[in-house]
Amino acid sequence: MTGIDTAPEILPSPAAPHGRWRSARETALLYVLSVFGALAISAVLVAMTGNSWPGVFKALFDGAFLAPGRWGNTLTIAMPMLLVAVGTTVAVRAGLFNIGQEGQLLMGAMLMAVVGTKIEGPGVLLLLGGLALGSVAGGAYAGISAVMRYRRGVPEVISTLLLVFIALQVTGFAVTTDWFLRDTDPTRPQRAQNSAALGPDTHLPVIRVFGNELSLGVVIAVVIAVAVAYLLARTIWGFRFRVLGHNARIAQKIGIAATRNGTLALFISGALAGLAGAVMLASGSSSYRFTPGFSTNIGWQGLLVALVARSRPLVCIPMAIVFAALRTGAGFLASTGVDRKIVDVTQALLVLALLIPPAVVFLRNRRRAIAAVSEAG
Amino acid sequence: MGDFFSAILDIFGSPTMYGSSVRLGGFLAFAALGELVAEKAGTINISVEGSLLAGAFCGALGYHWTGSTGVGLLTGVAGGLVIALIQANMSHRLTADQFVVGLTANVLVLGLAGFFNAIVDPAVRPAAVVAIPGLSDIPLIGPALFGQTWPTYLLYPLIPLTWWLLYRTRWGLEVQAVGENPQASDVSGIDVNKRRRQAIAYGGLLAGLGGAFLVLGQVGSFDTAAVGGRGFIAIAAVYFGGWTLGGTLLGALVFGFADAFRLAVPVLGYQFNAQLLAALPYVLTLVVMVAITKQLRQPAALAQPFVRGLR
């Protein structure tokens, strides 16, 4: 199984007679055309509903950044997406395709809720303990897939996916069961489907900048993204993952254990998704209460962010902001009469569009290499 | 505990249970048959989920506009095919990663179906039940297999057709060769990626038909959650069957039965944990895969992209 971004690096670009600049210009043009195509299709869809797409664009932009308090909102949504995306990156680099982040995120949030509502203790300890246990829960949930893969040969693509549907039911069970997580406060009429709220001393601190409120989690997420970028690029652990992802046979020859490193990579990716869930809960998602629909597709969208960023942790940062902006901007679409699902379509089209240029460049370089070889021979 | 066993007995003796097993398993079988062909050629086509949903929505649209179930089935097939062609061309012409493309295609279909469903809101009625005389009088399995809505019967000729295509035509043998050893196939003059694209397209046709069957022959309404991850269970059915046609069909039936069991328990008046029941098909799928995947011999080049001259 190959990683997502391995293909274009297999053959280096041959020194074409026209020079490197022309290639770079062509590549840039390809990217511009692809993104433009994706946006144009979205605009056509908007036009089909009889709306003007500049109006929709303005509503999106207002909702994401310009209206009061909105950019803080956008960054707070980008935070869990970034954590999920960075985790995905680790797995992809090791040649594993974890697509169960939605479930791992739910598990992380569930454990945070258990620690925050069922255990007595000083708030800071509960907060840190909840974040740690949430990460472990997400990691362990992804670990199930690792064990299935390395012990029993079950592809992780399918097992992580099926585990999402099981996680949805487990969390549904948790919040409807009294001894588990259901709110036992009899004065709340709508307690049937959610947990008690986290106590105020277990909330993550909120930073206020220019009338915007951001969770401290935003800082945590960016620090983790930078740290993972460093670990992948500059340390022996990152090197092992990358070799494993590039060529499993060579990894085996030079003594990189596929089972140990692959399991570790899946665990890390699940742990970051779990952390994302725990951080979401501690920074006020659905009023600090754990609910069955708590994840609201953040896991899936974080996965798309990683795909768009082509598994580069630092590129995940701006991409997470773009995806979060589309999401918060969608909240302002109601005034234009366009269904907010258009945002999901645009996100998917952007991912597909950004897959095209590297593949075209790869094929072009190959063609030139073959031409060069046959000319020389 | 005694209650539990009498419940099990009741459920296994209930004719409605067999009927709904065939309906739910039949839906999976449409998708799984196509997925089998795609995997024989070497692609784990996770966009089968998207093809199913596209088939379901386009089927509903076709019915909404023309009022004809037949047209609805055809538009459904077209919808499934379009998604499969996106998958095939992105992953086996442009060499983008097949899982990335498949996953994104699924998200795209979900978004598009939701977007247009909010605009059009197609009205659908289920197709008429046609009991096949004679055959439908067999006790228990008769009505289950031959007392269904007429689109169900489209599945039956597709089974020998797929078998013939895969095992008795030159095309099918080439598809299998491409999934086992793409390098050797390439050297013997088979266009590897073309065969893979065609295999995915065949899967898209069947998944589109399956999706349309779900809406027009079974549920009688469209909802974006209609497919809800069952495309992935169809993939699991192919694993369950060890990449054989009979095994794949058996897998579809077993998983369909689990789904039917989940629905039958509350109807027959038994109290059972709802979440556990809802998770049952997925848990069963995972347990089965853990138990048997290692014993099976999958197509040797499954999920490996082919680019001439590499490796």
Using brief descriptors, characterize the structure shown.
A: 377 residues; mainly alpha; ABC transporter involved in vitamin B12 uptake, BtuC; 13 helices; globular; disordered N terminus; B: 311 residues; 0% strand
Compact summary:
Chain A has helices at 20-48, 53-66, 70-93, 101-118, 123-152, 156-175, 217-234, 236-246, 248-253, 258-282, 298-308, 313-330, 341-376, and strands spanning 206-209, 212-215.
Walk me through the structure.
The complex is a heterodimer of chains A (377) and B (311). By secondary structure, chain A is an all-alpha fold. Chain A has 13 helices and 2 strands. Chain A folds into 2 domains: 1-51 and 339-377, no CATH class; 64-337, ABC transporter involved in vitamin B12 uptake, BtuC. In chain A, 69% of the residues lie in helices and 2% in strands. Chain B contains 13 helices and no strands. The mean pLDDT of chain B is 88. Chain B has a domain at 17-228. In chain B, helix 2 (15-40) crosses helix 11 and helix 3 runs antiparallel to helix 4 (69-92). Chain B has 311 residues and is mainly α. Classes of the chains: A mainly alpha (377), B mainly alpha (311).
Q: Segments of chain B where pLDDT lies below 50 for 5+ residues? A: none
The oligomeric state of the chains shown is heterodimer
Radius of gyration of chain B, Cα only, in angstroms? 20 Å
Number of helices of chain A: 13
Write the layout of secondary structure elements.
The complex is a heterodimer of chains A (377) and B (311).
Chain A: H1 20-48, H2 53-66, H3 70-93, H4 101-118, H5 123-152, H6 156-175, E1 206-209, E2 212-215, H7 217-234, H8 236-246, H9 248-253, H10 258-282, H11 298-308, H12 313-330, H13 341-376
Antiparallel strand pairs in A: 1-2
Chain B: H1 2-12, H2 15-40, H3 48-66, H4 69-92, H5 98-120, H6 141-146, H7 155-168, H8 170-180, H9 182-187, H10 192-219, H11 230-240, H12 245-267, H13 274-292
